[in-house]
């Protein structure tokens, strides 16, 4: 197959530089040239459209695409759960996200099915099941249900939300099992959470020594640990243990942000899920108690974003959407654009997220040698960032050089 040329678009390349009018040449799934080319090949006219790199969501839960409570009480069949997961994967691609980092819920078979092209979806990096302490965040069994029965909720190859550990040895075993099942990085819950059953936001979970076990096992495989963490004590425990990334960071203070910056630990705030829980708790398949937990989190997370930015922390972007209502994933960029600038939100969702995922230069940027992951927008989302929120504005999505969505 010969080269293809995308011509006429206003190009925002993901680097933070001002937009420019430049033609893009694609060959064998990669960008080979920026600028006019005399080479033969298919020409795709993108006049009047704005081109960005394929977006990256650094915090997704494809495996939580069914209503949460029925999912974990055997009220939904494996077939329906699979249908929900793959529908969400397709909707993610249609929203302009060509790469995601799944931070808990899917098993390795989902990654494989998408990678083989058997179902539509983004490029997926997955931690497999989240690593949690007994009775901590990530456990949704009934109060009377013994912990050892929790794994019966897993559907091998499809979904496995979390694994419970009572000590460092159990955590080491669980981590090795997660890698055996295809995890490419690890995620631990080191504090309580908003969508929790048996924990509080102020709880810390796992000791420094326990977290360090996961860091050691990840380092042995040349990868890293990220942590679900809302409070500063939990964040500091994780940073001390050697993790590379923090999810949420709701109550982050200046001293903890300074420590994160010094240790080169990234932060992935998650605003869209908070808005989701405040405005459509039932749509996420959760009880109203989740709304109460979410109150005040938005304001704290907004302050944490400013604190992290001032301290020089690398800040990515993640939506953390849960339940069936995951079709407006780009809402995270619109929300971040209102707190920073549209360009900063876009860079977080492209170049910075690629760095956090370990894919720097491969995705998240429009440059020679990068994967040809491109989105053409109807309008200019830098001038109107609300365009990110509506998937219909992503009129053309190209993934690895192939057109995977075309509304022109």
UniProtKB/TrEMBL annotation:
This is Amidohydrolase family protein. It comes from Streptomyces scopuliridis.
């Amino acid at each position: 197959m010969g080269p293809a040329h995308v011509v006429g678009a206003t190009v925002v390349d993901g680097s933070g530089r001002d937009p420019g009018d430049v033609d893009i040449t694609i060959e064998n799934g990669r960008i080979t040239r920026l600028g006019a080319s005399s080479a033969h090949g298919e020409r795709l006219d993108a006049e009047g459209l704005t081109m960005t790199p394929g977006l990256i969501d650094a915090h997704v839960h494809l495996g939580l695409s069914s209503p949460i409570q029925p999912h974990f009480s055997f009220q939904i069949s494996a077939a329906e759960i699979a249908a929900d997961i793959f529908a969400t994967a397709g909707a993610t691609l249609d929203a302009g996200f060509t790469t995601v980092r799944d931070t808990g819920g899917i098993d390795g078979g989902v990654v494989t099915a998408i990678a083989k092209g058997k179902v539509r979806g983004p490029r997926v990096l997955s931690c497999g099941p989240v690593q949690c302490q007994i009775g901590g965040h990530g456990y949704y069994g009934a109060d009377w249900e013994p912990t050892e029965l929790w794994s019966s909720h897993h559907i091998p190859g499809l979904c496995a939300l979390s694994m419970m550990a009572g000590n460092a040895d159990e955590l080491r075993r669980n981590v090795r099992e997660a890698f055996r099942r295809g995890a490419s990085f690890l995620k631990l819950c080191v504090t309580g959470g908003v969508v929790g059953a048996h924990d509080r936001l102020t709880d810390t979970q796992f000791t420094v020594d326990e977290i360090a076990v996961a860091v050691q096992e990840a380092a042995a495989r040349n990868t890293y640990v990220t942590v679900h963490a809302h409070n500063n004590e939990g964040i500091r425990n994780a940073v001390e243990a050697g993790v590379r990334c923090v999810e949420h960071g709701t109550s982050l203070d200046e001293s903890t942000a300074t420590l994160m910056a010094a240790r080169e630990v990234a932060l992935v705030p998650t605003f869209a899920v908070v808005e989701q829980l405040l405005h459509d708790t039932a749509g996420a398949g959760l009880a109203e108690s989740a709304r109460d937990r979410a109150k005040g989190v938005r304001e704290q997370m907004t302050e944490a974003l400013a604190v992290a930015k001032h301290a020089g922390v690398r800040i990515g972007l993640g939506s953390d959407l849960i339940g069936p209502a995951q079709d407006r994933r780009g809402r995270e960029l619109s929300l971040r654009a209102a707190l920073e600038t549209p360009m900063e939100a876009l860079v977080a969702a492209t170049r910075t997220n690629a760095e956090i995922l370990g894919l720097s230069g491969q995705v998240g940027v429009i440059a020679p040698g990068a994967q040809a992951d491109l989105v053409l927008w109807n309008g200019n989302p830098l001038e109107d960032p609300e365009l990110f929120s509506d998937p219909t504005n992503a009129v053309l999505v190209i993934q690895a050089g192939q057109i995977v969505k075309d509304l022109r």
